[in-house]
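#struct-pred

JT: dropping the chains for the assembly here, can someone run the whole complex?
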Amino acid sequence: MLNNKMTELLQIQYPIIQAPMAGGITTSELVAEVSNAGGLGSIGAGYMTPVQIREQIIEIKQLTSNPFSINLFVPNEFFVIQDEIDSANQVLQPLRDELGIRDEDRMEIPQFEDELDTFHEQIKVVIEEKVPVCSFTFGIPSAEVIRELKQHNIILMGTATTVEEAIEVEKAGMDIVIVQGSEAGGHRGSFLLHAQESLIGLMSLIPQTVDQVNIPVVAAGGIMDGRGLMASVCLGASGVQMGTAFLTTSESGAPAIQKEEILYAHEDQTVLTRAFSGKWARGIKNKYISEMQQHEATLPEFPVQNALTKGIRSASSSQKNPDFMSLWSGQSPRLAEKQTVSKLIKKMIAEAKHLKETL
Amino acid sequence: MLNNKMTELLQIQYPIIQAPMAGGITTSELVAEVSNAGGLGSIGAGYMTPVQIREQIIEIKQLTSNPFSINLFVPNEFFVIQDEIDSANQVLQPLRDELGIRDEDRMEIPQFEDELDTFHEQIKVVIEEKVPVCSFTFGIPSAEVIRELKQHNIILMGTATTVEEAIEVEKAGMDIVIVQGSEAGGHRGSFLLHAQESLIGLMSLIPQTVDQVNIPVVAAGGIMDGRGLMASVCLGASGVQMGTAFLTTSESGAPAIQKEEILYAHEDQTVLTRAFSGKWARGIKNKYISEMQQHEATLPEFPVQNALTKGIRSASSSQKNPDFMSLWSGQSPRLAEKQTVSKLIKKMIAEAKHLKETL
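RK: done, full complex below.
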């Protein structure tokens, strides 16, 4: 039951993928430990330079000989609108002052052409370093990119938040589709509809998707233990992808303060916001999210807003002040535990086996 | 596995409750057929008069000797603000004109004291007619009401949308808690937080709730088949409550046009709106919801807005025009089928058994 086409394609023992959380959380230790424990570790490389990516791949290969994955953001065209930036900066400046940030004028505003170039360089590194699995968020790469990766026998996974998006992922030739339920923490992977129109709970999203696609479906969102794994399998998924559950493990690179915030949060304390990056994402509601709520509609788009808030997020983090950090979390923080990766995976599999026997 | 404390309390064969959909959907045939097929049929009596309730109970008893349930709305205090009513009427008048409605001036505006009186009369009928099970939405009735119902050995079920609400339901002395996931169609049962802050997907809501309460937990939202039943059981639920799945059966009293709209809808076509009743509810997006979106924040509260839109909804329905009807649906309309109650329940149980064997 836990071995199927998905585990076969990925050559892993258990159908458990560690979600590719961007921003320093997916340390080489985390990725390698997950793969060593029989799951699939993933580098959240969306914001990484090609050089950083190569370094981390080399490091992970020294820590595991099992398959692992890398996740890239598909660049979406965006426009740099100075008026939007100016009005966002007006709102953000008092927060920068409060945190004592002085170098906001050195902030680099991203340009679409540069992002596209970086994406192609990232792909090149993935191919050169023979990463076994590559997943994508925020859309589907061009047919050329997909063809090139497949020529190098790299297994491809796409992210979908609706049945229609899952069908597009399959049509593009990807091997596996990850369906992201409304429960999921972090960025919404939506690319056909607005993120707020594609908030489908996994109880609805999994069965409706598996009825429409032939590739393996992996469920993501709020899954933390053997119960979530078995429920996903009952609904027709081949496996699960978990973010928050791995974020609080010892091997994760998340700041201690972020781990603590999750460990003490309740299921009704996460909200969707685009105030951090310009794209909708789910995190624990804090002072920053509350204060920015009235400006949500007029903020610059991704990744411009992300660049504008970078200093605020990192100053808040280094001052151990959760008020202005992006505390991404799914809707199941009550199930988060402070534990090692190996313990988490072992417990999940034991729970799943026990459940199977008692059903 | 499908027999547990919940089926024992309710004295039913299968852990399947037909959701108490208000507004004429839960005909006596539907309720009785569900109970005859081994589930628990439920009267959606929220908007019914005590006389109507008594008539339907008597009718159902002639059609089944199995237990069935009745659902009541717990009255929440509300205020009748003439300014709000006037500005809502200004927006609604063009729609009334479009539908050729002429008697809007005879509209009766509800008063809280009357609603409370009606609620107590409803309770009296439930006791006199010895309805075996009574469930509540929109809150928890007073300790007196609960005590009285329990003295008459009526099994009580409360509705919760967060862990905290489920804890309150248990504390109040109810026997079973129904957790309503964000996937659910129709009205949100939230009573502690605003409805929009308590949109928790079932993958998150079920396990976090069962970890915190001792009474049986029933899952509601997007569940349509044996897969959803087994997934809910894996997550720790004792059973399921299904609305949309029963709404499209032959025995349901929903207008044919509403059934058709659901049968052709996709998972990303439902939205939350308070434009029909003043309380947030999930339905298929239509012309009315779209046009009212900009006024959501300023509309009168429940049940005032409900009274204001009654004529519009019924005219739209009798004109077979889905544009202004409340097309309540959960997030799994792709799984809805035109079938009899008996076929739906038999298929679910067969699927669940098959799944158990193949896991």
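JT: nice. The domain at 5-358 of chain B is CATH 3.20.20.70 (TIM Barrel). The radius of gyration of chain B is 19 Å.
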